[in-house]
Write a structure and sequence with these properties.
By secondary structure, the protein is of the alpha+beta class. Among the domains are: 103 residues, Roll (Nuclear Transport Factor 2, Chain: A), CATH 3.10.450; 107 residues, Sandwich (Immunoglobulin-like), CATH 2.60.40. It contains six helices and 14 strands. The strands form three sheets. The protein has a five-stranded antiparallel sheet with strand order 5-6-7-12-10, with no helix packed on it. Strands 8, 9, 11, 13 and 14 form a five-stranded antiparallel sheet that branches. Strands 1-2-3-4 form a four-stranded antiparallel sheet, covered by helices on one side. Strand 3 and strand 4 form a beta hairpin. Keywords: Membrane, Plasmid, Transmembrane, Transmembrane helix.
Length: 301
């Protein structure tokens, strides 16, 4: 019996030695394969860098990566004069940076460093509006579904972006990216300067600018009330020819914005639906005596 037990112990010991040896051999070859892979990756990276060191796109990408590293350390966005508005990858990287700010609740930085200053001034954008637009209850990821450029416009592109949270809920935004790397949260494909003014009953109406946007247009109209009476705007419409009438949305105000008091100057940011180039824009006002008057602010008629 003792002999049998000793034989069994010997067999178990031999088996354990064989298993340990087998595991050691597997570990050795696994480590060797990983080292070879790392050597190959290093070789390919070195070769890629050598082959692309004179490539402008490669230089710009490398520059932006280094710049982004600096931004993370200093918490300051470095605006580059070499932002390539025609490179979709560059725009995609910018959108990823913005998404990171949204996820980190860095809305002050998003507003002050990434929003285009002219857009903020012209559209009266506030930090609270930025928070209301981009605040999510969960982390989001960004997917660009389309980048649109006008053939005769060289200083901007419009990215259609899906922001998707962890529960797969999503919101879609059209973000204008300008040539300096700043943004607007509206699709401003193209802008046309007007500076066209008419005077009516001591009130000046100046059509300052028109933007071509998605599914419509945006007009900026300044109203200066030099009269002694309240201006009560009842309606604003656009027309194409004599047959087609288009409704509007007031982007920068509420029901009280339509009233312009004496000595007041008010900008109206007016979105016209479904027509990017109407040939007329008309205001309908209620006069002090209660009569209704419609007139053009675009064609002086």
């Amino acid at each position: 019996m003792k002999t049998i037990i000793k034989n069994n112990k010997f067999i178990v010991m031999i088996f354990c030695i064989i298993v340990l040896a087998f595991v050691s051999i597997i570990g050795y070859y696994t480590n060797k394969i990983e080292k070879l892979k790392n050597i190959e990756i290093s070789r390919l990276t070195t070769q890629y860098n050598k082959e692309n060191k004179n490539n402008e796109t490669f230089k710009e990408t490398t520059k932006r990566i280094k710049t982004n590293d600096i931004n993370i350390k200093t918490n300051t966005k470095v605006v580059t004069d070499n932002f390539d508005i025609n490179n979709d990858k560059v725009i995609e990287k910018l959108i990823i940076d913005i998404t990171t700010l949204i996820n980190n609740d860095e809305f002050t930085r998003l507003y002050k460093e990434y929003y285009n200053k002219e857009f903020v001034k012209e559209f009266k954008i506030t930090e609270k509006q930025v928070i209301d637009k981009f605040k999510f209850s969960q982390k989001v990821s960004a997917t660009i579904t389309r980048v649109t450029r006008e053939s005769d416009v060289y200083d901007r592109a419009v990215a259609t972006v899906r922001l998707i949270d962890d529960k797969k809920a999503e919101r879609i935004f059209d973000i204008t990216v300008f040539e300096d790397g700043t943004i607007a949260d509206l699709p401003l494909y193209k802008e046309v300067q007007f500076d066209r003014t008419i005077e009516r009953d001591n009130v000046l109406y100046t059509v300052k600018k028109r933007y071509k946007t998605r599914l419509g247009s945006i007009f900026i109209v300044n109203v200066v009330n030099n009269s002694e009476y309240l201006i009560d705007i009842q309606e604003i419409n656009a027309y194409m020819g004599t047959s087609f009438k288009y409704d509007h949305e007031l982007i920068n105000g509420n029901i009280h914005t339509y009233e312009v008091t004496p000595e007041e100057s008010q900008d109206f940011i007016i979105k016209i639906f479904n027509q990017d180039k109407p040939d007329d824009l008309r205001f309908t006002n209620k006069k002090i005596d209660g009569t209704i008057e419609e007139f053009s602010v675009l064609n002086n008629r």
